[in-house]
Automatic annotation (TrEMBL):
Record key words, sorted: Proteasome, Repeat
Residue ranges of domain 26S proteasome non-ATPase regulatory subunit 1/RPN2 N-terminal in the record: 15-135, 155-315
UniProt region (Disordered), positions on chain: 130-154, 313-411, 934-1108, 1143-1175
Descriptive protein name: 26S proteasome regulatory subunit RPN2 C-terminal domain-containing protein
Gene Ontology biological-process annotations: proteasome-mediated ubiquitin-dependent protein catabolic process; regulation of protein catabolic process
Cellular compartments per GO CC: nucleus; proteasome regulatory particle, base subcomplex; proteasome storage granule
Molecular-function annotations in GO: enzyme regulator activity
Biased composition (Low complexity): 138-149, 323-377, 392-405, 1059-1072
Domain of life: Eukaryota
The UniProt record lists the keyword Repeat: yes
Biased composition annotated in UniProt, kind: Basic and acidic residues: 1074-1084, 1157-1166
Amino acid sequence: MSAACKVERPRQVSSAAGVLSLLDEQEYSLRVLALQKLNSVVDQFWAEIADYLADIESLYEDPKFDHRELAALVASKVYYHLEEYDDALRLALGAGNLFVLSEKSQYVHTIISRCIDEYVSERVKHDEAKAKEEEAAARQGAQHEGGAAPMDVDQQPQAALKPIDSRLEAIVERMFDQCVEDREYRQALGIALEARRLDRVEGIIKAAPNTSDILRYCLRHAQTVILSKRFRTHVLELLVRVYREFPPVELEGELANLCQCLFFLNDVTAVANILKDLVDKQDQKHTAMAYQIAFDIANNEDQQFLKDLLSHLPAPKVPEPPQQAAAEPAAPAEGAEVAPAAAETGAGEPTATTAAQGEGGSTEAAGAAVTASSGEAPAADQTQADAEVLPAASGEGAAEAVAETTQEETPEDKKLRLLRYILDGDAAIDLHLLFLSQKCKADLQLLEHIKNSVDQRNSISHNGIVIAHSIMHAGTTEDEFLRKNLDWLAKAVSWAKFTATASLGVIHKGHFKNSMKVLEPYLPQTAPQPGGYSEGGALYALGLIHANHSNPTVRQYLMQQLLASSQNEQIQHGACLGLGLLCMGSHDEELYEKLKEVLFTDSAIAGEAAGYAMGLVMLGSTSEHAISELLAYAHDTQHEKIIRACALSLALIMFKREEEAETLIQQLMMDKDPILRYGAMFTIAMAYCGSYSNTAIRRLLHVSVSDVSDDVRRAAVIALGFILCNVPEQVPKVVNLLCQSYNPHVRYASCIALGIACAGTAMSEAVNLLIPMASDTTDFVRQGALLALGLVLQQATDALNEKTKDVRELFIKVLADKHEDIMTRFGAILAYGLIDAGGRNAAVSFYSKAGSLRSEAAVGMCLFCQLWYWFPLIHTVALAFQPTGLIGLTTDLKMPSSFAVKNTAKPEMFAYPAQFQVKKDDAPTKTTTAVLSTTVKQQLKKRQSTMHIDDKEGDSPTAAAAAPPPPPSVAVKEAETDEGSKTATAPAPLRGAGQQGGEEDSASILSDMPSTRGADVASTAATIGEYLETSHTEVESTTSIDARSMAARSERKEDVTMTPADAPAAAAAAAGTDDEKDKKKEGDGGGDDPNKAAAPTEEEKDGVLKNPCRVLPRQEAYIDMLPDNRYKPIISDRKSGFLILLDQTPDEPEEYVQPKAAKEEDKEPEPPEAFEWSG
């Protein structure tokens, strides 16, 4: 083979020394060649090249060297490998066009990332400086107009910042162009939003082929990515301008998003004009869109915006029905449609109990409560109820009845009436009330088990069960558990009675029409009552029912009670809280002044409630005079309750104000009073709620490890949950180290922050952090972990989180453990209420379906966090609940029964949990008593002697009389049968505490002392239970031995002799027989898992969910519309909430969902006929 045919392998370069030596050459071309070679091998030999960095940088800095950009590129790559990223970025900027953005390498990606971060940081600094200059100029102009002195030195504009490096800007501009060329519009839009480049945002939106899609993407992220409120406003204004440039046909499908932008901009006039234009058009499609927009706006829960919007809309020509019907105690007519379990099964009977148990209560009050619950009313009231028009109705059939057109009403007037009905918020509340009532799956067996598992004499556990019951039934109007346990409920006294009465407000939340009727027996009467706990709780409950839905009549009533109860702190407390909730966010100056008068009385109890109420009324107003007055009084008063209420009130006033709250935040943080610093943390939480502000997060983390007060540190960590509620997946990462803090207050707050931000997500990361903390060494940390688990696992199944079953079992174990601390057991009871909130059909949600932050949710959770100091505030968690349902409505606001959706997920993935059942393992187990051999011998001798006597006297007449008594189990069964028959035939009377048997029980539920009421029954039951637990096995074993001995003796006709060694074997055989019987019973169905998902119905197995139905947030991805459905949603991508439907075949007949009839109650026995005593 010739040498020419030989194939030479390429020589592998093992060093860059030869190329580096060329850098020392004087020849220009050789140095350029060296740089070109080094650029190709720098990733291999960067360590060698690093020794020549000074030479390479000198070439870059030499202005006479024509290839400076190449030298900068090589040096940048070397610095990149040395992890000197700042120098790498500086030299990459000098490389100019040689730095290729499209190159797919780790070096390019890293430098671009650093470049974007640097550019965004510089742009933000310049934008904030510009904003401060504009603010200073506006302030200076205002001062000149008012003739004020020149502004202080601190207010002077700061020195101008250095301009942004043009090379940095050039790379970012090239990156924008590259993204558009590669059709990566969302990536470019995200960077433009972070960099606050409004011009680029507009260019990218218009360059995208699907403008509607990119606009929706921009709107969705404008509330999360953009941290500056000023720039967010500019972006929303840009979106409105782009939407208005759409052709009319395309704009019709985007009107809902356009109205959301206008809502965020607080442009009431523009929204009103859009709604009027849609209603004026005479076709079904435009009417449906108007109603859908109205539902979206109403669900944003901005009471002031809705009030202004209604004032801009024309009123129907036909007079509207009275909206004050909610405050009228008149009963509905016979056959009228009312909310389930409210009029027919309603809260009447527990109402009677609480009224009777109230201070000075009487049987007349109990009778009045029963009358109120029975639906009976005088003829005049009944006539008035018949005359009521149904926009004021609530619950079953309310929306359907509203849709009926009167003879004098035109179609246009009907549209306006229904539109106003929706914007009032009545439609959503009525439909939610109907949904929660009909779909309620609350487990009464579970509540009964909890009640029987805790210490009946402990006031905290009793109070916890009452609160948990109300949370479980929030908004459902179902109170069957209370009616079945009237005597137990009557044990609540003092503030526990206040809380128990207020719990009815949670149960009947949104039940506007019958609110006064339900609470009438508790409300203050004409004659002053001593104590006033029930009356104050009823006023608080009235506020909970009407929360964030102001009603003039209810407001007037609460105001009258507030003014008339100047000598009763309990009633003042309830009236203030009720007014604050009722007029939340109304900015009512008159009401604010009345509450301020109560605050200035310096009464700790009444002043605390007045402080909270002032903040609720002025929610988000940034009122300067309110801030100054609250802050000044907080410094003057000596009551910690009032100081804390004022501090929280300041936080509520700054709700969603972000940068505008900075001055107040700094002032509170520098205060020497730890309670005001505590308020500063919640001011940060409210002002930046859902903003994901890095500045706020850094500040809170600093305070959480530096403040000297445990309360302040606890509040700082809790505030993280509010700020990160829009990105719950980030919260476990942020609080991970805080969960391991040495400070128990920080650990407790970490749990609460996880529960707030991750509520209803069933997030594994959060659950994995919380479960170990449920066994913490500190009692209140365990309580916080249990509460957080209840929030995180709301509506969760084993398919969503495999630890759901274990957590539910943990709750039962903790609350039933008598050796566990009462604080922890209280947390477990509340946790079960939270995990099954709203009849298992509701969950905590900070955002509406349209993506707007819900003020009710933020306020409710903020006040709920004050449970550390005041238990009645736990009820406010109900404000954060959002029903998880899909409700399809026609343009007449009726629910068609033929509308359905397809659930493509497995039925058990989102099924309801099964009803609770007590496991066999939880039943009392038989104990085996140790028996000594000598004792066995004595028993055998005695038994043998007895057998001989029986043989001799078997036919004696006294044999039957001398027969042994029946086993204890038989006696107990007979006793239970007798007792049960007595209970069934003699129901407990409706009497309150202190009226049992006509004498007052001195040992109350709050005294933690044994009650003397029913002591004989309790002692007898305890004796029988103790006897059964310790002796049942021994008796059964002995009886079995005797039976076998007698059988053997009768068969063999001779005496039986048993050795001591045979006794254990006989006892084991008897026990084995009993075990086999127990196993057989368990196999018959007694061993079902009480925590597994409920068996799906045939309809659920097919995956078809009929209107209305429960749809969880995670379930929306599995929901599809049926192709052959008669109805089509006006917004096709909506999978939950209220869906306005278009009827494809309007001429065909249709059936609508009819409210289910309430359960029939047993009729009360007729009173005896009147008679005259003749003897």
